Amino acid sequence: MNTTILETIAAATKARVEKAKQEKSLETIKSEAQRLDANTGFPFEQALRSEDIAFICECKKASPSKGLIAQDFPYLKIAGEYEEAGAAAISVLTEPQWFLGSNEILQEIASAVKIPCLRKDFTVDEYMIYEAKTLGASAVLLICALLKEDTMRDYIKICDRLGLSALVEAHDEREIQSAVRAGARIIGVNNRNLHDFTVDVHNSERLRKLVPETVLFVAESGIRSAADIRVLRNARVNGVLIGETLMRAPDKRAMLCELRGGNSQ
Ligand SMILES: O=C(O)c1ccccc1NCC(=O)[C@H](O)[C@H](O)COP(=O)(O)O
């Protein structure tokens, strides 16, 4: 079988984590994270509960499917615009090779905004969860395709103890069932097919039915228009995660308003 982009990124991420451990050990990052306040009230989850449909707006300079998206990437300005325009949370890519993200970008954004930040990365080691906490994240991404069910359960428990939320990403029925069994309280369905990079928001619509009402549901990727949002709102998704559409919009506030179905003028 061909190696998927996800497997390639995961292998590079494992190497990145091993390098990070040489600079700061697991024990050190763990104790740094554990010294931080764990009584957070899980703001990322709260943000998803508190709105009709919550917008998680992404700061992303590049991606494997699109290459460079934003030549100019004033991420603090972008995050500020998202916050002012009523974003519920901000997703920050920290993967450096394909997404041109960094830990520093997350740390700076998290300390500049009041809304919760998701560390969007390819979590392959518990080290990355403790690291996310020290960087100021309120949530981390856990991808079913990269983690065995028992590991997923353990990682969700680590998140709970640190006061972090886990957005557990699934692509199909089997992964959704595994995420539910592992104790996920937030499941995100990624609409992007990682073999051919095509996107279909109806993937979220279809899979929403399989997720219990008690579990929060986020639709991720390929959301381009108010019509897409209408489909997802009708499917009772709690939140949408939007990257490229917002990153390419010169006026983020106007684009968010348009996506919500309003008039930006
Ligand atoms: O975006 C990609 O090309 C990609 C490829 C392989 C793994 C993950 C990938 N993207 C990460 C994301 O999940 C998106 O950044 C996020 O859902 C927003 O998607 P979009 O609104 O389509 O930019």
Automatic annotation (TrEMBL):
One of the GO biological process terms: L-tryptophan biosynthetic process
PROSITE patterns: IGPS (PS00614)
High-level lineage: Bacteria, Bacillati, Bacillota, Clostridia, Eubacteriales
Alphabetically ordered keywords of this record: Amino-acid biosynthesis, Aromatic amino acid biosynthesis, Decarboxylase, Lyase, Tryptophan biosynthesis
Protein name in the entry: Indole-3-glycerol phosphate synthase
Class in the EC hierarchy, top level: lyase
Catalytic activity as recorded in UniProt: 1-(2-carboxyphenylamino)-1-deoxy-D-ribulose 5-phosphate + H(+) = (1S,2R)-1-C-(indol-3-yl)glycerol 3-phosphate + CO2 + H2O
Highest rank taxon of the organism: Bacteria
Family: Belongs to the TrpC family.
Enzyme Commission identifier(s): 4.1.1.48
